[in-house]
Write a structure and sequence with these properties.
Helices cover 33% and strands 16% of the residues. By secondary structure, the protein is an alpha+beta fold. Helix 1 packs antiparallel against helix 2.
Length: 232
């Protein structure tokens, strides 16, 4: 079971639970467009890069005209797999697999910086938006991994009964949406290949949807407490 995160351990092909919240527990998504902008950053960072236009702006300096291409955002489509996510009013959760031992650091710095700049400009504020540097918990146990995905997708249940209508990846997992930059294969493989019975899932639960929407599963009671302690 993960312990309170004091030191990040980055490994190649590691799966990580990434989360952070607003400084002083402040709201970081004030309206729908804020959630959508964060998702736009994920899309730009994780989608296969497009060929940029040859020339899309000109600059005149001291009588000389220069033509060029606008700076492109960093792309991590070959380094990061996003397995699940959930955006809440004052925090977010990402479940990520990295293909080398440095991708997450660069990815999270890019996402956090770009979103903070957007938010501060939009709401005319200065200073840090997030409480601290993001938390990154290496997920090394299969049992914890699958229950963690359930925890992430159930996070909005405190204010929304229909989990498919939240800012999370759950709608993708129940085939109501198909997001190209989300990888569902690892989590769903436990149900497609009848592997769920080896990681303490009750036998009457035979699909990912029934797993997530079950009211309570005894073996995961520690999850919420562990995560809340680490966010404090």
């Amino acid at each position: 079971m993960p312990r309170k995160n004091a030191r990040k351990i980055y490994v190649k092909d590691g799966i990580y639970h990434i989360y952070n919240r607003g400084v002083e527990k402040r709201i970081i998504f004030l309206e729908d467009n804020d959630y959508k902008y964060f998702l736009k950053l994920l899309k730009e960072s994780l989608s296969a890069p497009q060929i940029p236009p040859k020339i899309n702006f000109t600059v005149t300096l001291k009588g000389d005209t220069f033509k060029g291409i606008a700076k492109q955002p960093k792309n991590f489509s070959d380094k990061i797999l996003l397995l699940a996510y959930c955006l809440m009013p004052n925090h977010f959760h990402l479940l990520i697999k990295q293909t080398n031992d440095t991708a997450i650091k660069d990815f999270m710095q890019s996402i956090s910086t770009r979103y903070s700049m957007y938010f501060n400009k939009k709401y005319n504020r200065v200073g840090s938006l997030f409480q601290s540097v993001y938390r990154a918990i290496l997920v090394s146990e299969e049992n914890y991994f699958l229950h963690l995905s359930r925890y992430i997708h159930r996070n909005p249940s405190e204010f929304q009964n229909n989990l498919s209508q939240t800012y999370s990846s759950y709608a993708d997992y129940i085939n109501l949406r198909n997001t190209p930059w989300l990888d569902k294969s690892i989590i769903l493989s436990y149900f497609n290949n009848n592997k769920a019975n080896i990681i303490n899932i009750p036998t009457h639960i035979n699909s990912y949807q029934s797993f997530v929407e079950a009211k309570e599963i005894e073996s995961e009671k520690f999850l919420g407490k562990t995560i809340l302690e680490d966010l404090s």
